[in-house]
Amino acid sequence: MKDLKCEITIDEMGNIFAVRPGRRKDVPATFIGSHLDTQPTGGRYDGILGVLSGVESLKRMDEMGLETEGGVGVVNWTNEEGARFPVSMIASGVWAECIPLSKAHNLKEVPTVASLPTAASAPETMKSALEKINYLGDVPCSYKTTPMAAHFELHIEQGPHLVSAGQRVGVVTAVQAYRWFRLKIIGRDTHTGTTAFEHRADALYAFALMMVRAREVAAAKGCLASVGIIEVAPGSVNTVPGQVSFSLDIRGPETALVAEVERELRSDFDKIAATEGAGIGKPCRVEWTLDFDSPAVKFHEDCIDCVQQSAHAVVADAPVADTKALVRPIMSGAGHDSVFTSKRVPTSMIFVPCKDGLSHHPEEFSSADDCATGASVILQAVVRYDRK
Amino acid sequence: MKDLKCEITIDEMGNIFAVRPGRRKDVPATFIGSHLDTQPTGGRYDGILGVLSGVESLKRMDEMGLETEGGVGVVNWTNEEGARFPVSMIASGVWAECIPLSKAHNLKEVPTVASLPTAASAPETMKSALEKINYLGDVPCSYKTTPMAAHFELHIEQGPHLVSAGQRVGVVTAVQAYRWFRLKIIGRDTHTGTTAFEHRADALYAFALMMVRAREVAAAKGCLASVGIIEVAPGSVNTVPGQVSFSLDIRGPETALVAEVERELRSDFDKIAATEGAGIGKPCRVEWTLDFDSPAVKFHEDCIDCVQQSAHAVVADAPVADTKALVRPIMSGAGHDSVFTSKRVPTSMIFVPCKDGLSHHPEEFSSADDCATGASVILQAVVRYDRK
Ligand SMILES: NC(=O)NCCC(=O)O
Ligand SMILES: NC(=O)NCCC(=O)O
To answer: How does strand B72-77 pair with strand B16-20?
Structure first.
């Protein structure tokens, strides 16, 4: 981006912005954005493709000597995954002023991170981690300080719909709702060899029942419920665990559906907890903490139109009778930084197919052709939007 | 023990032996033994009472100027709990030549130990831990090098039978069987937000079903099955875990029953694993490793008789009509070092009541009276055995 003489800013969340100036200085740039962070066992496309498509778009515009009205920018958002610091899309959330900076800065890394410190030293916070890598910028993280005309994002679908239908481009119109919780089950440590089942308040057994129940309830409502992190104390072969902490990720196509699943699980988990340990009059109890709430989102019609027109144009040469059928509207199952940019500026996204719909896995794959198609669509969409 | 002029030896498993000599030098000493190690959230009685009762017995014998035929010894066995190094009774197992020294020395600490090293440094082994605290002795750990005439052990019951029946002493005649396994479930990491349940091979969901099933199967056969340790990878809120490792502790009053539970669970766990992920043709799979196998044990009639006579003598003054009813034969639910000494020398144990039958918990409690009763019984039992 420096070679292309872009203006580069790094804000206090470590977000990196690069802008290729347009003819007019009085309007904000249109951005292509995504993220470079990944999962402990993530692949090489989730997020990375989006940022690289922005860089490539700016290079291509330079090669073509293309002038735009407003500037065109690329943004790399920090910690979109929420893998190391367990709130997803946190830096675009701060930019949108939906998440307080202090909450983001003080967020602690999850204990399962490979760089796990010894019990004696404190876990890293987002702020200390940014300082360590020299990416704690001094520009305020806000849509007011770093404004955008619009935000476009290219991403692999991470799901199976495009690939199984043989389609080339997804015009993303919406993102499903999700909520992240941390739950704690408190039971009673006791001996595994001398304590009859009816005398136990086994927090891990209660967890097992809860996880089974979570899938049942979510499935019945067309939603998802998943546990990715679990920690058990005291952690000894022959002690029944008296404490379990775990993450719960609930998703669904509508905000209200996610709320319904949550409501039902709160009640069911209480019942499960009340049963385990009832025999000793000291039943388990369960505590919920909401860490993150992302209601369902609908993207902006203007942006969706630009993407759709560009998609049809890019696939027009494909050797099939009906090239329009290669493009489809789609809802995103995953969250993306576009969720937060959409709260402040016109936003939409482009999906390209990925192998087996697999993501958050080292085998995540999207062919060079599919990546190039997506990059062509996003470049055209940005230019179309600029000319509106 | 040094003050009492005992002969002290420390063997290569860190077992500490102290012997008060008897009249005869040509016969081995009768030992009172237990352990001083505990659980991450253990109490102040499990094991500790047994060692202290030995120390107290030797002091008492000195005060009384009591001479014995053979010597009388106290032994503190290393790592009886298997909490930090996850094989219980390992040091008495090496002494009995039932567990190879090299296996014991190379055993790694569990990752949940508070002193968890960073991922970069290796976990401590039993040998390195003994070296660090200067308890890697040079005396071979074997019943041949440190012989015993017999082994007696005083312990809190750790279960509810004595306390709920208002009884004072348990004459332990047997120990139930148990097996410890490490299991690994291999599934597939994938995105929690974009992966339908039928496209998942969720190792943690499979675990939850297995844990629920384990209790069902064990309960139906009058056995126990417990999980105390679980680790999940990769450990991210929005990645379906592709790998789960956990401990499984199966116990039952007969060796054959434990084997039956194991057989049934091996088959059921395979079925659960085969179902989770079947939709993508890459089902979960589950691998078992047997870490420890302790068949059911019956103690020695001579030792049981000495304990029973001593128990009746000690409670004879109690203000109840039938003092004999204060003493009962009992089977131990937990394992003890006496399990391994019983393979080589006449052995038996004494139980005293503990509050709520609770153990492996900070609230573990046995009254001073009950502790004193147990100590009196073990001292008498040893003297009776010596005089046989
Ligand atoms: N695209 C993506 O994987 N985002 C991470 C946030 C989420 O869990 O949906
Ligand atoms: N007594 C006791 O807690 N022993 C530990 C070994 C076992 O798990 O039974």
So the answer is: antiparallel
Name the residue in chain B with its Cα closest to that of A177.
B193
Q: Are strands A30-35 and A150-156 parallel, antiparallel or unpaired?
A: parallel
The shortest CB-CB distance from B86 to any of A42, A110, A237 is to: A237
- Shortest-distance ligand to the CA of residue A43: 1
How many other CB atoms are found less than 10 A from the CB of residue A205? 28
User: Shortest Cα distance from B83 to chain A (angstroms)?
Assistant: 5
Q: Which amino acid is at B316?
A: A
Could you tell me the pTM of the whole model? 0.96
CATH class of A177-294: alpha beta
Domain ranges within chain A, ordered by starting residue: 7-176+296-387, 177-294
**CA of A252 vs chain B CAs: smallest distance (Å):** 9
Ligand located closest to B247 CA: 2
- Which of A243, A93, B192 lies closest to A107 in space, CA to CA? A93
Q: Nearest CB to B114: which of A42, A119, A192?
A: A119
Best B35, B183, B195, B236 residue to mutate vs chain A (most A CBs within 10 Å): B236
Classified by CATH at the fold level, domain B7-176+296-387 comes out as Aminopeptidase (3.40.630)
Quick one: tokens of B387?
């005089």
Q: Over its length of 388 residues, how does chain B's per-residue pLDDT go in tens digits?
A: 999 999 999 999 999 999 999 999 999 999 999 999 999 999 999 999 999 999 999 999 999 999 999 999 999 999 999 999 999 999 999 999 999 999 999 999 987 544 444 444 578 999 999 999 999 999 999 999 999 999 999 999 999 999 999 999 999 999 999 999 999 999 999 999 999 999 999 999 999 999 999 999 999 999 999 999 999 999 999 999 999 999 999 999 999 999 999 999 999 999 999 999 999 999 999 999 999 999 999 999 999 999 999 999 999 999 999 999 999 999 999 999 999 999 999 999 999 999 999 999 999 999 999 999 999 999 999 999 999 8
Does A209 contact B204 at a Cβ distance shorter than 8 Å? no
State whether B237 and A195 contact (CB < 8 Å). no
How far is B335 from B35, CA to CA, in rounded Å? 12
